Amino acid sequence: MMSAPSQTETWTISIDKEADIVAVRQQARELAKELHFDQFAVAALTTAASELSRNVWVHAQRGVARIRILRNGNRVGVELEFVDHGPGIADLNRVLAGGFSTSRSLGLGLSGTKRLVDEFDIDTQPGRGTTIVIRKWKKEF
Amino acid sequence: MQQARQPNYMEILKLDDDELRKRLAFYELTDEDFKRLNSLKSFADRWTHEITEGLYELIMGQPESREFFPDQATLARVKKMQNSYFLGLFSGTYDLNYVRDRLRVGMAHERIGMPPKLYLGAYRRYLALIHERLLDHFKDNVTEATRALESIRKVIFFDMALAIDTYIAAYLETMTRHQAAIRELSTPVIKVHDRILLLPIVGTVDTQRAHQIMETVLVQVVEEQAKVMILDIAGVPVVDTKVADHILKTTAAVQLLGGQTILTGISASVARTVVELGVEITRMHTRAKLSEGIELALSIVGKKIAPKTAHAGGEGA
Amino acid sequence: MAAGPIPILKIGATLLATIQIELHDTVVDSFQNDVLEQIEKTGARGLIIDISALETVDSYVARMLANTAKMAKLMGTNTVIVGMRPAVAATLVRMGYYMEGITTALSLEEGLKLQSNGSEPTDDERS
User: Fold this and answer.
1) Cβ separation B176–A40 shorter than 8 A
2) Tell me: the pLDDT tens digits for B236-288?
3) Where are the beta strands (DSSP E) in chain B?
4) Are C127 and B284 a contacting pair at CB < 8 A?
5) Which CATH architecture has domain C8-106?
6) Spatial contact of B122 and B59, defined as CB atoms under 8 Å apart
């Protein structure tokens, strides 16, 4: 995929209570706005951040979110990484392929969230936990 | 000097401490060079005026460059800037402020439209003028003169790179603006009537364009408080599942805002394709012709097109 | 009227709730309680939820709004969501949330019109 982006600042927010979801969301939003992403991209990134941090809280009760600015050539982007040591996702393919459901079962909203970002990497093992990395690049032209 | 919203060239060119360090290293600019340059400050003070004059003698000798300096006031101002630029070469401090300053000079030249060939030619003359006077300054010590010239050459090349960078950054900025303008033109949302908008979509719709269409449509619907959005697709050559999906999403989004969509310009083949693909369109208003769509839109907002009554009094109200 | 973090006003026979804060569990719970309490107290037939200040509506908030509307409906009150931002609408549909079953309107004014036109928006106004 992409060569390792040169990284600058990183924000780390631990997720172990519901209010932390708001903290992650606000940090992502502020950053996207500072980097002058357009309103639709800001909303997409913020919503993705919210969905994924809520997933961490709901399924693993604790985890961490790391937010980084990415630079690659002329481009600037934002990367969010969510790490938890929760139950992991058993049937990843089905979860990623499916639409959404209104119940609270595992891995929800992932397929929807995937569509909001440019890059979506997930590493999960039932019983070991889940790491999800998403990236969104600012539209240049 | 008036400044319109300046794009942040430092950001565009990613000129941070890291990049600065890399560049200084590549141009082999060391502390020794900085010290040497700083020690030549008095040399610089002595010769800056003459060197600037020599430089502009060359520039003004070129008929095409004269247009950049239309009057004496401009020329005087530019020469003054050139003097401080020259002195800056010998400041001994080459940090991000120095870089920012150099970029500003480059930007000023780019803004007046001075082409790189003239700019670089000027630097060449600069070096020649400095060389002459350096030999004179160190007349009994050729080694020192050469070392001094080398340090000056390094910093001048370093500056030239920055100057060229500003041209590149400026072109990038222009291209970005043009692209934005093209995108705007390709999504002309028209207000047909109070609270009724129309977007004729012409040409192929790829994912990027579809995104842009949805975004423009939604922003306009809210801005105009449009109750009805007419999307005419008569000009879309191919309507496959992807395009149909994009249209559906846009329709759904308009509905979420509280508006309605009418899809018009549906040809027989598009109708066939959509049904065969099993695309769900029951919740959308559709019409074959744009005119029918407009009539429906008007009825939704409680209006209609009616013939003028032929009363005595004819024209006017 | 309601003392919670989300103000609920009465406009004629309609309740107007304006959401201007970040939403999470406790806020949502007290909001829903407040709404139902107010419906009971005032006998309002309509509820308008103004989300024009919400920059982010994720699946949680979307579910919350839908559930609030369902609860209100059980008590005989119709809900209209107004003021959704363009970026919010785009994000929801891109995720695949079409919020079917929820009635929306462009503005508070339109929402009130819908409420006063009768208990249900007519077919003409809702496609």
Assistant:
1) no
2) 988 888 888 899 899 999 999 999 999 999 988 888 877 877 766 666 899 99
3) 190-193, 196-202, 228-235, 260-264, 285-286
4) yes
5) 2-Layer Sandwich (3.30)
6) yes
